[in-house]
Amino acid sequence: MLTDDPDVPNFGEIEINFASELERRETNTLTIPIVDFNYGIFPNVQFSIESGYIWEKSQHDFGATEVAVKYNFYSNDIVSLALYPHYIFYANDSLFKESNSWEIMLPMSFKLSKKLTLVSSLTYIKPTKEQNHVEFGSYLEYEKSRDSYYVEGYWEEEPQTKDRVLINLGYLHRFHDGLAFIGSVGYEVQSSQKRATLGYLGLQVSF
C-alpha cells in the first residue's frame, strides 16, 4: 500500500520487508530487490531506511534511498496518530536520479469495527529542485484471522500537469507472528502519462 499506517515496531524489535515492484507503462520498470529496514529505537519511535534496485530496458542501477523516523504520538483502542518525516536522496551518478526531497507525513488509523480499519496519510513534499506538492492516501483494511484485505485510493498532486490518481487492491497473509506475505495490484485511473498498472510482492520478517 502507498498509504502509510501509524504503527511502529516495539522497542528493540526489527522489521524487514523484502519486495519487488513492477510498473507497466510505455516502458516497463522493475524494482527488485526492495529492502525496507525498520527498527524500534525507542518506545513508539521507529527508524527506517529503504532502497531498491531498478531495471528498465537495458539499464539498471540503484534508485532512491529513503531515511525516516516515525513517532506514534497518540494511540488508543480506536484512534492512532503518528508523525513521519522522511529524507529521500539519490547517488550523484544514479541513472535514475531525480530531485532529492524532504517529506512530512501524518499517518492516522481509525478502528471502525472489530475487523474493519480505516487508514489515511497526508504528505507534504518539498523537493530541492521542483515545486512543493501534497499527496493523500486512504485504505480500508478487513482483517479475518491471519488474512487482511485492502482497498486503497491514492491521490498525488502534480504541479502544472494532471494529478495522479491510483486505485489499489492488496492482500496480506500472516504465516505466524514474525512472517507475512504481502501482495497488491493497482491501476492509475488518472495520470499525466499513459496510465500504468502496478504490481507489488513482498515478505515481511520481524524479530
**Low-confidence spans: pLDDT under 50, at least 5 residues?**
none
* CATH fold assignment: Porin
Mean pLDDT across all residues, rounded?
92
Structural class: mainly beta
Question: H/E element string?
Answer: EEEEEEEEEEEE
Number of separate domains: 1
Structural commentary:
The chain is mainly beta. The protein has a single domain (14-206), classed as Porin. It has strands at residues 14-24, 29-42, 45-56, 59-75, 79-89, 101-111, 116-127, 133-144, 147-156, 164-176, 179-190, 197-206. The chain has a twelve-stranded antiparallel β-barrel. Strand 11 (179-190) and strand 12 (197-206) form a beta hairpin. The chain starts with 13 loop residues before the first strand and ends with a strand. The mean pLDDT is 92.
How are the SSEs ordered, and which strands pair?
Blueprint (H helix, E strand, L loop, with lengths): L13 E11 L4 E14 L2 E12 L2 E17 L3 E11 L11 E11 L4 E12 L5 E12 L2 E10 L7 E13 L2 E12 L6 E10 L1
Antiparallel strand pairs: 1-2, 1-12, 2-3, 3-4, 4-5, 5-6, 6-7, 7-8, 8-9, 9-10, 10-11, 11-12
What descriptive keywords fit this protein?
single chain; globular; Porin; 207 residues; mainly beta
Give a short summary of the structure.
This protein is an all-beta fold and 207 residues long.
